[in-house]
Amino acid sequence: MKAITGKIARPSVGRAVLRVLAVVALPTIGSAAFAQAPQTPTAPDTIEARVRACAPCHGEQGQGTDNDYFPRLAGKPAGYLKNQLVAFRDGRRRYAPMNYLLEYQNEAYLQKIAEYFSALRPPPTPPAVTDVSAAVLDRGKTLVIDGDQAHSVPACAGCHGPKLTGMVPGIPGLVGLRASYVSAQLGAFRYGTRTAAAPDCMQLVAASLTESDVTAVAAYLASQPMPTDPSPVPQGTLAMPFACGSEPH
Amino acid sequence: MRIDRLTSWLLFAALFLAGLGFPAVATAADDHALIVKGEYLAQAGDCIACHTNPGGKLFAGGRAMATPFGNIYSSNITPDPATGIGKWSVDDFYKTMHEGRFPDGGLIYPVMPYASYTKVTRADSDAIFAYLRSVPAVNQPDKPTDLQFPYDNRQLILGWRTLYFNEGEYQPDAAKSAEWNRGAYLVGGLGHCAMCHSPINSLGGTPESKAFQGGLIPMQNWYAPSLTSNKEAGLGEWSIDEIVGLLRNGVSHRGAVYGPMAEVTFNSLQYLSDADVRAMALYLKSLAEGSPPGPESSGVTTSESSLLMTLGQTVYQARCASCHGSDGRGMPPDYPPLAGNPSIQMESAVNPIRMVLNGGLPPGTAGNPEPYGMPPFAQTLSDDEIAAVVTYIRAAWGNRGAAVSAGQANELRKVPLD
C-alpha cells in the first residue's frame, strides 16, 4: 500500500514541480521572445523629455541659442516664466509660434515647465560684442543703473535688482539676453503686443523711453557679463518705485 | 374633536407640503439634473469653441469665423435678454438647432453646424437650452457679419439649404447595436465631425454622398482626413482602445491629435464618458472597415530619391530621429510613430508639412495632462530642407506618400497660425 501510495505520490509531486517551473519559466520565455523582437522604446517619464520641444529655440538647458530673438530661460524666476507661458496661451503676449504651441495646455503643467527652467543653471552666456558707440553704451548704463528722473524713466536696477538677476516671483533677470531680444520686448510693451497683469508697469516704462534710449539700454544689457550666480533676489528685497501687477507685495 | 382638529391640521399640513414644498424641491432637483445633462451635451457639441472668444466671457460670442466668403461672428448665447438668448423659449432654441432658423424665422448661416445639429433629439436640445439658461448673462451685442457681396444676402442661404440641408432628427438603424447607434448619433449630430471631415465645394456645401470623405478646411489650411478611408484617418484597422485614447486623451499608440483636432479633444471629447467615446469609436471604426489599403509603393521616383531622400535622411537623423527613431517607430504614445502612420502619407501633404513647420503639443487632458511636444522648425529649416525631410518620412520605412516640393513648404510657411 505504502509503495503504491508512494508511486502515485511521486508523479504528482513531479507534476506540481513542473507546473511551478512552467509558471516561472513562461514569463521568462515570454519576455525573452519579446526582447528579441524589436521592442518599441518608451519616452522617459521626465519633465526634461516633455519639454524637449523648447530646446531648438531656447537651448537644451534653457541657455538660449545663437538666434538673437529667442531668450535664455534658465534661472529666471518661476513666477515670471509661468506668467509668460499663460500670457502666450491666452494671447496677452503675442508671438504666433508660442501662442500656437501653448493654446491647449493647463496651468498646472505650465507651472511645472516654469519651475523646471527656473531651476536650471547652465554656463553663463558670454557678453555680446557691441557695435554701438561708447556714448550710447554710457547712456544705456545710466538708464539701467540710475534711470532718467527728468523723463520719468526709473532705473532698471530698481526692480530687476542690483545685479539685474530679477526678483522672485515675477520680475525677470535681464542678464544673458541679446540686444535684439531686449529692444523687441520694449517695443512689444509699447505697442501692446506684450501685456501683463494690471498695473502693467513695463508698458508705462517702455512708453517713456525714446527709440535711442531703447537701443542704448539693449546694447548695454547685452554687453554685460553674467554674474556667477544668476539667481533672482528673494521676494520683497527691493522697494519698487511703483506697483506692478506681476509682483505681489 | 381634538383628534379631529389635529387630524385636519395634519392633513392640511400634508396637503400644503405636497402642494408647494415637496414638488418645489423635486423640481429644483430635476432642473439641476437637466442642467448637468445639458452641460455635458453642450461639451459634446463643442459649443464653447465658437461661442467663446479666447480669453473672453463664456458663451458671449463675438469670435470671428473666417470663411472664404468673409467673416461671420458667433452669437452671444448667454441668457442676457437684450443681447443673448434670454428672451428665447425652449421652442425657439429647438428651432435654431433643428431648422437653422432664428426665432423670427430668419436664416442662419450654415457656419453654425445645424446641418449636424438637426439630428439632435428634442430632449437633448431642451437640456442644452436649460444649461445655457443657467450660465452667467453677459451683455455683449453681436457683431454684424462682414461678408463680401453677394454673400451678405441671407436669401442665398435658401439655395444652400435646398442643396445641402436635410432636416430631421437622427433615425436609429435597427440593424445595428444600440452602442453603434449612440456613436452615429454623437458623431453625426452634436459632434458635427462632418463640418471638417467632409469635402466642402465652392458653394460651401457637402453633398450627402461625400460625407466624412475628408477635405481641406477652408481658411485654416489643415487637411481634415477622410474618416471612411484607411489610407487617411480611416480607423478600420485601429483597435477600439486606440481610437478611444486618441479621441479622449489626445494621444494613442498610432498617432496624436494636432491642428484643429487638438481643440476638439481639449474642449469637447476629453469630457465625454467612456461609454460615449467608445460608442463613437465603434461607429468610426465601422465607417472605414473594408476600405482598400493604399498604393503598393511610394510615388517618389528614383531621381527624386537621390536628391530629396538623401537630404531628407540627413535632416531626419539630425532633427527627428532622437524622438521618432531611426526606424520611424517613435516612442508611442508620447512620440508618435511615423512608419505606417497614415496621417503622414495622405495624398495631401499639408498636415505633415505644417507639423514640421509649426511643431505642436497634443492638448493637455485629464488622461494626458503633461503632453510631450514637438518643436517648430519654421525658424531653423529652409524650404528645401522641409520639403526633403517631409518627402523622406512620406517614403521611408515602407511609407507610400508622394514627394513634396519646396514651393509647397513655402506656401504653408505663410499661413497665419491664429
Question: Which terms would index this structure?
Answer:
heterodimer; A: 249 residues; mainly alpha; 0% strand; disordered N terminus; B: mainly alpha; Cytochrome Bc1 Complex, Chain D, domain 2; 3 domains; three-stranded antiparallel sheet; 17 helices; 5 strands; 45% helix
Please explain how this structure is put together.
The complex is a heterodimer of chains A (249) and B (418). Chain A has 249 residues and is an all-alpha fold. Helices cover 51% and strands 0% of the residues of chain A. Chain A folds into two domains: 11-41, no CATH class; 47-223, Cytochrome c-like domain (Cytochrome Bc1 Complex, Chain D, domain 2, Orthogonal Bundle). Chain A contains eleven helices and no strands. Chain A is globular, with a radius of gyration of 29 Å. Chain B has 418 residues and is mainly alpha-helical. Chain B has 17 helices and five strands. Chain B is globular, with a radius of gyration of 25 Å. Residues 14-24 of chain B have low confidence and may be disordered. At the A-B interface, α2, α3, α5 and α6 of A face α10 of B.
Topology:
The complex is a heterodimer of chains A (249) and B (418).
Chain A (H helix, E strand, L loop, with lengths): L1 H35 L10 H4 L4 H4 L19 H13 L5 H7 L4 H13 L14 H12 L10 H5 L18 H13 L9 H7 L3 H13 L26
Helix pairs in contact in A: 4-5, 4-6, 7-11, 9-10, 9-11
Chain B lengths: L1 H43 L2 H5 L12 E4 L2 E4 L16 H10 L14 H4 L4 H13 L11 E2 L8 H9 L13 H11 L5 H4 L17 E3 L4 E3 L15 H10 L10 H8 L6 H15 L13 H18 L1 H4 L17 H4 L4 H9 L24 H13 L10 H8 L5
Antiparallel strand pairs in B: 1-2, 2-3, 4-5
Helix pairs in contact in B: 1-5, 3-5, 7-11, 9-11, 12-16, 15-17, 16-17
